[in-house]
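Narrative summary of target 7.
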Amino acid sequence: MAVKSTANSLSGLYFLKNFYSNNRSLTTSSNRKKCNNSELSYEDSLALGRAVKKLKSFSYSSSENSDTINGAIKAFVETYNNTLASASGSSNSDVSRQAKRFKKYTDDNADALKKIGITIKSDGSLSCSENLLKKADIEDLKSAFGKDNKYLQNLSRTAKRLNSESYDYLYRQMTGTGGNINLSL
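Modeled conformation, tokenized:
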């Protein structure tokens, strides 16, 4: 049975801006075009970590607002897609390796996602059917995104790795160190 909706729901845009709280301008494609993939990977990994944390915070019970949960899920899908695109487009192999991990974990969770209206496109990005998401059973939502969900745990761990790899890569770009230590005197 799907969760009931009430008038006090939060939209996907609200959650998206919350996930990108460090740099809300990156919620629009025109502003994303102004950044390089390294910058985007760093910000996207932070946003994905917040999205996962939010999805894990819901109890997925009939007392929760379904529109609010659906808004968070739609924002998660957009954040995931942004993260996958920026990491996949990186020239740094450590960063792009994390994109492959995201794809693997998502492929492993494809059946649970499909039950709630989220499908995986050929490039590994996600597509969300709002109609199917609205009709999704609360137990299916909990199965896909509940607190103890292995998929979210893997995404969280990989988002942290991506953040660290992106930060290191940005730091090397800014300092010109290239990550090598010069031991000559």
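The radius of gyration is 18 Å.
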